[in-house]
Amino acid sequence: MTNEIQTIFNRIAPVYDQLNDWLSLGQHRIWKEMAVKWSAAKSGDTALDLCCGSGDLALRLARRVGATGQVYGVDFSPNLLEIASSRSHWQYPQPAINWIEADVLNLPFDDHQFDAATMGYGLRNVKDIPRSLQELYRVLKPGAKAAILDFHRPSNLQLRSFQQWYLDAFVVPVANYLGLKEEYAYISPSLDRFPIGKEQIELAHQVGFAVATHYPIANGMMGVLVVKKNE
What we know:
47% of the residues lie in helices and 21% in strands. By secondary structure, the chain is α/β, with parallel strands linked by helices.
């Protein structure tokens, strides 16, 4: 499954940002800003963005940590990392972002290395969610926070029906128009398998996070899991 997802993201890399804008009606920018805020990253911090894609969240973290901070963006798609790297040169030229090709289930970092972390639309695609959260816990410093943004299944059946209609009637046709129907058809089945908010909280507690809160956004069609490591 990991290789399949990796291949998908390599193929969609050239239109990834354009698609995200279209498919979220531009709202993903607001949600990402919320995630960065909830991560509590501040000036001078060393911050981590997992499944960084084309670099949106990592760039936002870089602006937060400033010239005295450091940001690491991790992804398994070399194509997306290449786009992220070129974006960072013209959007945020200071050398604060280290782009690293790696597996989020086996992070190439020391224990207790990061002051803050984010993950946008990545947790749903990892093959082992508890292991991914465990690795995140390991690399965070005591007292550090992480914010994980992803799709979510609303508890309201009407909203759930709307979400399914939106995926079928809008997301897949737009992807089809760009020649990427197969690549985006995976969203709906991946969402069906994805733990809902309270299940994500339970998984976070199981790997050791002292505090875990899930904030539903966009009428529960998206969510941000905010976790904090013990002091």
